[in-house]
Amino acid sequence: MDERIEQLRLRTRGAVITAADDGYDDARKVHNAMIDRRPRVVVRAANVGDVMAAVAYAREEGLDLAVRGGSHSVPGFGTCADGVVLDLSAMRGVRVDPHTETARVEGGATWGDVNAATYPFGLATTGGIISTTGVGGLTLGGGIGYLSRGLGLSCDNLLSADVVTADGELLVVSEKEHDDLFWAIRGGGGNFGVITSFDFRLRPVRDIYGGPIFFELDHAGDVLRFFREFIADAPRELGAFPAFQIAPPLPFIPEQRHGEPFVAIVACWAGPLDEGERQLRPLRDIAPIVAEHVGPMPYPALNSAFDALVPPGLQHYWKANFNTELTDAAIDGHLQHAPKLPAVNSTVHIYPINGACHDVAPDATAFSYRDATFATVIAGMWPDPADNDANIEWVRDYYAATAPHSERGGYVNFMAEDDQGRIQENYRGNYERLVEVKRAYDADNVFHLNQNIRP
Ligand SMILES: Cc1cc2nc3c(=O)[nH]c(=O)nc-3n(C[C@H](O)[C@H](O)[C@H](O)COP(=O)(O)OP(=O)(O)OC[C@H]3O[C@@H](n4cnc5c(N)ncnc54)[C@H](O)[C@@H]3O)c2cc1C
Q1: Which tens digit of pLDDT belongs to each residue from 164-192?
Q2: pLDDT tens sequence across 95-129
Q3: pLDDT at residue number 175
């Protein structure tokens, strides 16, 4: 029996799981099955006290500390070898205050948890495209989703947060208190502490009009060129992004086309429902439609519509860039590599960054690319590890073709492990200030399993 682990158990309300315990193999898993690490201990925190105990334990023992929210990090930052995993997945409560239109969200909640709690009030805030992604990692890196043109990034809707710092202290941070730390956690990732709860501003959103529209790949150039002009000044209630996607075996897609690659537009009109059809018409008119699944639906239904394409246990390798301008040359890069999508789980999304995202100054939060017009992600995901070499090569070749026509930086949440060298480029003018905040709150770099800002 390890005395120190027993001491940790005494200090902790939640489960403390080691290799000797049942459930260890499940507890050490993260979403990306390419990551297979054996932590010394997994602390599944039940409350803020457990979080403080786990941070203190890692420091006292001189062990690596991995903090895990929704576990979607592609580089697998939510686990580590022979260190401490602080798993927040048992802390996912959401309390909605319909009067102030705010929600208090615990640090391990997913967007599905948030949607389920806010929808009955006809309220929402910007989350990601998939409902199983964690609020924690997504918000800390920025947060791009269906509602970001209208409501801003997820981090733009953050009003305050409870943060356990490297010293094991709990700070409540906002524009008024510890504003430097509040600034840094809005884009700077998990570098500065463990967020045990997030306070979000909500907005009226209940049912939306939208869904995916599939066009022939031959029309991909027309679709992208039309979209880049159209979305620049489309109404802010319209969230939409072009995607390259292999047709899954779904009833709305002609059976003989299942398994073929297409260009799609996924749309989400969050304004008055009866205007939805008219607002989406320009998108539906770009080219002949092969298949579509568009109509009114609850926002949480669209937000979970693609969950089944990205179950836990796939292999993941991603690359990403911002574009201030989606040039014809960049589009040519897409046209060259998108037809070679390797699996139905893989996708390329070209998310517009405009509307409310541009209302915030580049230095107002740590997320600096406020002049970008698109965030592109080449999301390689596939089931069989035997395909790893070939599929990683597809992502890298695709990236190599589009990177010369893109900004040097990309969205931190779409970055791979081998992108650590791009940190400064991802933050540009905000990087030095992030280093200063890191020095002030985590000079020993306790929180280093992330896209790391070194003190
Ligand atoms: C299938 C899929 C779909 C995605 N879709 C989108 C999308 O639509 N929009 C978008 O913006 N991004 C998207 N992402 C990227 C996503 O934002 C990042 O992977 C993000 O890091 C996931 O957060 P998480 O909490 O699930 O992950 P985790 O692996 O748990 O954590 C990721 C990082 O955040 C830190 N972290 C997490 N929670 C906390 C916390 N409470 N306190 C302190 N640090 C914390 C971790 O330490 C780690 O460094 C997607 C990712 C996947 C795999």
Answers
A1: 999 999 999 999 999 999 999 999 999 99
A2: 999 999 999 999 999 999 999 999 999 999 999 99
A3: 98
Query: Over the stretch 74-86, which tens digit does the pLDDT of each residue have?
Result: 999 999 999 999 9
Contacts of 138 (CB under 8 A, 6+ apart): 70, 72, 111, 127, 128, 154, 413
Quick one: pLDDT band at residue 12, thresholds 50, 70, 90?
very high
375 in contact with ligand 1, CB cutoff 6 A: no
34: its two tokens:
């390419």
**CA nearest ligand 1 atom 13, residue:** 128
Q: What is the pLDDT of residue 34?
A: 97
Dist. CA 274 → ligand 1 center (Å): 34
DSSP 392-430: HHHHHHHHHHHGGGS-S---GGG--GGGGGGHHHHHGGG
* Tokens, residue 382: 């596939």
| Token pair listed for 154 | 């997820």
Phi, psi at residue 275, to the nearest 5°? -95, -10
Whole-model pTM: value is 0.98
Kindly state if the Cβ of 150 falls inside 6 Å of ligand 1.
Answer: no
Q: Label the pairing between strands 315-323 and 374-382.
A: antiparallel
In whole angstroms, give the CA distance from residue 278 to residue 339: 31
Q: Is the pLDDT of residue 1 over 80?
A: no
Torsion of CA 452, 147, 300, 283, to 10 degrees: -120
- Separation CA 187–CA 324 (nearest Å): 18
Contact between residue 77 and residue 179 where contact means Cβ atoms under 8 Å apart: no
Residue 115, helix vs strand vs coil: helix
Q: Which two tokens stand for residue 406?
A: 């893109």
140 CA: nearest ligand 1 atom: 34
Please tell me if the CB atom of residue 145 comes closer than 6 angstroms to any atom of ligand 1. yes
Report how far residue 429's alpha carbon sits from residue 315's, in angstroms, rounded to the nearest whole number: 34
For ligand 1, whether the C-beta of 155 sits within 6 Å is no
Q: Which of 44, 72, 149 to mutate to test the pocket of ligand 1 (most atoms within 8 A of CB)?
A: 72
